[in-house]
């Protein structure tokens, strides 16, 4: 059984989640519930559990406040939240699962299935440490979780020069190497647009600070600081120029 605690400050949402787990996730045993950070600490400290289902916003703080006060974090996490851009971006950068309210049974069972599959792995603590790091770090020190076949690698976002799409794969170009990930360029555009990246073409996402010059000739193209030349698509030209003007 997957011993689970739930932090949720709305009674109706808590009851609904417990009903979903009872009906669709028979391998989950709820061993404790709490409605606040303080209650959550009392619920968790001294208790052994495998999974925490965490509402991001609680009555007296956030799930992140709860996490930073725990003496140990050797359990799996699934966050539950209404749409909150900051929280979701931090969670996604750290490759930790989250569910959007209202929770759908299919999404819940999928997330629980991932936890079960990871129980034999040892990556969750590194994901959690990365989440807490990114929540507290200055923009220049934030990192991105890159899932690979045999590991999860955490790289500094500032070290990414550009991302190149290739169907359902993305090549992440660093100064000394290339990493290929089984995710679309659209997914990385959503993750990195607020971190100083601009989509210049169907296949190219570029870190703005790595751009050396924009040339108007030949329909418009960029020259990067490493010498790479990339065309700017016609329908993205004005958007790219606007983003470049923002950083002047």
UniProtKB/TrEMBL annotation:
The modification 4-aspartylphosphate is found at residue 55. SUPFAM superfamilies: CheY-like. It comes from the Bacteria. Residues 144-246 form the HTH LytTR-type domain. Keywords: DNA-binding, Phosphoprotein. Residues 3-116 form the Response regulatory domain. One of its GO terms (molecular function) is phosphorelay response regulator activity. The keyword DNA-binding applies. InterPro entries: CheY-like_superfamily (IPR011006), LytR-like (IPR046947), LytTR_DNA-bd_dom (IPR007492), Sig_transdc_resp-reg_receiver (IPR001789). This is DNA-binding response regulator. The lineage of its organism: Bacteria, Pseudomonadati, Bacteroidota, Saprospiria, Saprospirales.
């Amino acid at each position: 059984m997957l011993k689970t605690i739930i932090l949720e400050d709305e009674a109706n949402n808590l009851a609904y989640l417990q009903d979903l787990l009872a009906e669709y996730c028979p391998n989950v045993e709820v061993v404790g519930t709490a409605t606040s950070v303080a209650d959550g600490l009392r619920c968790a400290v001294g208790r052994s559990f495998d999974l925490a289902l965490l509402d991001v916003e609680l009555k007296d703080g956030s799930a992140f406040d709860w996490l930073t006060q725990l003496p140990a974090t050797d359990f799996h996490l699934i966050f539950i939240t209404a749409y909150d851009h900051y929280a979701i971006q931090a969670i996604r950068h750290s490759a930790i699962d989250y569910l959007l309210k209202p929770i759908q049974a299919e999404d819940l069972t999928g997330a629980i299935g991932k936890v079960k599959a990871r129980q034999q792995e040892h990556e969750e603590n590194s994901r959690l440490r990365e989440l807490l790091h990114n929540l507290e770090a200055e923009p220049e020190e934030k990192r991105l979780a890159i899932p690979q076949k045999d590991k999860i690698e955490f790289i500094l976002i500032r070290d990414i020069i550009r991302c190149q799409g290739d169907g359902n794969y993305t090549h992440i170009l660093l100064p000394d190497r290339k990493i290929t990930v089984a995710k679309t360029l659209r997914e990385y555009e959503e993750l990195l647009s607020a971190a100083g990246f601009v989509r210049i073409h169907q296949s190219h996402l570029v870190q703005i600070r790595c751009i050396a010059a924009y040339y108007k000739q030949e329909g418009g193209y960029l020259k990067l600081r490493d010498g790479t030349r990339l065309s700017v698509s016609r329908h993205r030209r004005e958007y790219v120029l606007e983003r470049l003007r923002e950083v002047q």
